[in-house]
Amino acid sequence: MLKKIQRRFILAAMAAFGTVMLLIVAGINWANYIQTASMQDKLALRLLEHGRPAFKGAEREFPPIRDLPGGGPEAEFTTRFFIAARDQSGNIKVISRDFIFSIDEETAAEYANAVLQKNREKGYYRDYRYRVKEDESGARVLFLNASMHLQFMRSLFFVSSGIGMLSLFLVFLLVVFFSRYAVRPYLKNMERQRRFITDAGHELKTPITSISTSADIAAMEHEGDEWIANIQRQAARLAKLTSDLVALSRLDEEMPFPEKSRFSLSDAAWEAAEPFEVMAKAKGRQYFQNIEENLNFHGDRESIQKMISILLDNAVKYSDPGGEIRLDVYRRRGKNCIEVFNTCDLPDISDLNRLFDRFYRMDESRSAHTGGTGIGLSMAQGIVQTHGGSIRVKSQDGKTICFKVIL
Questions:
Q1: Based on the number of CB atoms within 10 Å of its own CB, is 323 exposed (0-12), middle (13-18) or buried (19 or more)?
Q2: Which of its termini does the chain have fewer beta carbons within 10 Å around, N or C?
Q3: 7 lies in a domain?
C-alpha cells in the first residue's frame, strides 16, 4: 500500500511539473520562432519593395535596411538573398543573385518553382525564408538566407529541451526522496484505521460466537420460534460482515499475499463456480459458463477464487427471476480475462463505478432482502488490484450488467 500511494504521489507531482516545464519550453521556442520569422519577413518585404533596379549595376546598390530589426551597419555584409520571378506565362526567371554566391541559376529557379507551387505568401524552404509578392506582371519571390537563424532555433530547441529533461529528472529524484515524508501522515491514519478494524474484528468474534451458540441452543429448546431464528440470521450476518471487514483491511497491507504461486486458473475457476451453478438453477436462473483450458496465473489461488465467488454470488442475488447468468474465463493478448454477466434491472447506470465503494448499495430495499453487506465488490476490487490487475463494470441499457477482470 505504501508503494502504491507513493507512486500516485510521484505521478501527480511529476505530471504537474512536466506540464509546466513543457509549456515553458514550448513557449520560449514559439516566441523565438515568431520573433525571428517576423524580423525576417520585414527584411524580406523591404528588399522586395526596394525594386528590381537596385540590384543592377557595377556598384551593386544595397537596399536601405539598416534601420530594420536585424539590420545595422554590417547588414550588407551579412544579408544574403536572391530574387526570382514568374511571368504571366508561368516561366521562372532569376532576377538577381548579386548578393549570394552559393546558389546557381538552375537551383534558384528550382527553389522558386517549388515555393510558388505552394501558393503561400511566406514561409521557410530549405535554409531560406521566402516572401512572395504578386502584381500585374506576375509574381516575385525573395529567398533570404536564414541558415544562421534556423541553426539558432534548433540549438535553442535542443538546449531548452535538454534543460527541461534534466530539470524533470532532478525534480523526480527530489520528489521520490521527499514523497515518503509527504505521504507519512496519510499512511499513519490508514494504519490506525486498519488496526482498529482488525482489533475490533477479533474482539467481536467472541461475543458473536457466544450469541450464535446461545441462539442455537435456544432454537433446539424452542423449535420454530421466529425471534430466535431472526437472532441466528442476524448473528450469522454480523459474523460474515466482521470477517469481510478484517479481510478487506488486510488487502491494504504492504504484502497481503506473501506466498503467491503459479496455479491453474482454469481449475480454480471451475472449483469456485461449481456451487453457484447449482444455486442459480435452484433459483430459476439460466446459468452458462465457458472456461478456457490450460490457463495459468501467478498469485494467491484462494483469493482469486474468493473474487470469482463474490462476482458470481452478486450475479445470483441480483439477477432477474428467470434471468441469465454467464461466466467466461479466457486469455486475450497475453492476459487472463474473467467476465461475469447477468440480466438485471438497474435503477441508475450513470455511475456504476460506485458499486465498488464500501457499503454502497444501488437499491437499499433489495440489498436488505438479499442480505448483502455492501463490501463484497470492494473486496473483489482489492483482490484484483493487489494482483496488479484491473476490474471494470458496464451496462448498456440498465437491463444487463457485466463485470470484467483483467489479470
A1: buried
A2: N
A3: no
